[in-house]
Write a structure and sequence with these properties.
6 strands; alpha+beta; 52% strand; six-stranded mixed sheet; 3 helices
Length: 133
């Protein structure tokens, strides 16, 4: 399994997040026809961890997480549940040992009325330091 797969498992296995979005947590793009609220996540940057003697064995990634919902309040509720789960998290999920996950950026809720359905999206970036368990 990849770190990204185990990152998704952290979200999907959390009771507070699951109560809001069920299993609607998708990599990169929302599933076509997905109901709201829903979450998508993607790796938007990162590099192998290094120190003066070379690799430290950690994968350092920047993960973007977006919570999309039909109302501002719902998007904020999903965002709050995600931040409560991920910010300052360390532990093992699947084959990944998460050394630390920390919130780097919370861009608030944006309104999107460009498509046939209006959505509110809360976007966050998390710095992830992880290694294979």
């Amino acid at each position: 399994m990849s770190m990204e797969t185990d990152f998704r498992a952290l979200l999907i296995n959390d009771p507070a997040i699951a109560a809001l979005v069920s299993t609607r947590i998708y990599p990169s793009t929302y599933a076509q026809g997905a109901t709201s609220p829903a979450v998508r996540y993607m790796r938007i940057g990162g590099a192998p961890g290094m120190h003066l003697r070379g690799s430290d064995g950690l994968d350092q990634a920047l993960m973007q997480v977006d919570a999309r919902a039909g109302t501002d309040a719902s998007a904020n509720a999903v965002r709050d549940a995600i931040v409560a789960k991920l910010n300052s998290f360390s532990g093992v999920q699947g084959a990944t040992k998460f050394q630390l996950i920390e919130l780097q950026s919370d861009r608030g809720v944006q309104f999107d009325n460009t498509g046939p359905t209006n959505y509110y999206t809360a976007s966050m970036d998390f710095a992830v330091k992880a290694s294979a368990d």
